[in-house]
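Running this now, will post back.
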Amino acid sequence: MIELISRDKCGPSVGPKVNTTARCYILASVAEYLQKQLDSLKYVLEMIQTLDGMFAKSSNTARQAAIGALMNTRMTGGNVRDHCLKIMAYISTAEVMEAKLEQEMKIDMILESLLDSFSQFKMNYNMNKLKLTPVELIHELESAEKSIGKQGSAYHAESSSKPKGKPKDGKKNKKHKGIGPATKLAAMKKPKSKCFKCGQKGHWKKDCPKSGMGSLNVVEACLVENYNDKWIIDSGATNHVCYSLQ
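Update: finished.
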């Protein structure tokens, strides 16, 4: 009823019956606290002007708020479909407020708000010079999201299969067999062969007690006089020397 009445006909010149009917419609459609404020107004025009002053919002302010929300929104988690729908809702709000956004600008806003994990998708989109609508872009992003999830699962499985720690010396851990009682007894047995150092049995050359002693040169001499008619045999002498060669 209010929409059918032009503003220039809502003043004192409007008929009493039409004015009363319009006032009743307005009072019935607002909250109780507003009814008390509007009931004192006599004409419909005054009531409409009061409501405009209380609730009307500047289109410029609303458009700026919608554009600001659109530019500052970034994907922080969840799935890419919900994020894209949120961006498209901001775009629709801005367009309702008479913001002029081209199709390419809408696509750029959606792509720039994505996570870094979609960097490969954005590179392929720009290199191939694709032309998609926002709805088509959402479908492509959902496929890319599934592919990224599979790659992440494969990387996690590969990392889990590797050993968690590294040996301190940089080599692989090897199982070392401990020295059992039988090995100790075998090591305690004395060798039966002779030592190459002293010629005695019971130890090796490396364990010889005489290994630290230096070598000695011993000179032996035996002088015999006034035995011209006799031979003297010394079995311990190294060399036999006498004045007669017979």
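Residues 1-9 have pLDDT under 50 and may be disordered. More later if anyone needs it.
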